[in-house]
Amino acid sequence: MEKGLSGKRIVVGGSRKLEEISTLIEKQGGIPVVRSLQGTVFLAEKEVEPDLVEFIEQGADWVIFTTGIGIETLLNIAAKLGLEEAFIDKIRMAKVASRGYKSLSALKKLQIEPIVTADDGTTKGLVRAFEGIDFTGKRVMLQLHGETAPALTQYLEEQGAEVQKILPYQHIEPETETVKTLCEELKNQECDAVCFTTAVQVRSLFNYAKQHNYAHELVEAFKGHTLAVAVGKVTLEALKEEGIDRVLAPENERMGAMIITLANYYLKASC
To answer: Is the pLDDT of residue 41 over 80?
Structure first.
């Protein structure tokens, strides 16, 4: 029986469940190549405290939450500072927007109902939902998670908002040598597909490429020989923002489903 990934070099950009995902690629006949683009996401408690206090003191017209864990972490930090109730009060006094179902769930626990939600759990969906809202001169607190959501920040600032970004979890870039190696492999058409499991991985790759003036070559690689694969909508959106239009993504946002979807893609292409 023909296997979908027979002889294909499949790059894995993540850092979690590497053994499982590599085994799955091998079972489908592929050659797993680990190039971790994830770096380290760490809890920046001390770094975020001044930003949190500033928000509690000044408040905001709008509060935008992008992750459930981000909300919970900010609540925990506020509680350690003895400011949990004050933090919740400031959220309630603002207009609230939520990107995904996890942030929506965390807000429901606080009995806070956002007035704006993304229809598809993506930043682009959130921007669509903001259409017609006047942000001129409005103070916006934007909670992020490791990844800085440049498109959303740019949109809000272009609409006249004053944006305060709060990142309870911050990102340290991956090993330079790893990113450099993958860039060379992409330029030399040595990868059949690259599997991205977070938006952070996409940013790490393209930030490095932009710094070294060959982001365009990467986009061309993904247009041609190499297929970009995203585990879910947020990662897919990050790839699109970098100019990659040909992206494969599974319906079920799981790593296993991503590999099976990729194998099926190649099987159909060979028919």
So the answer is: no
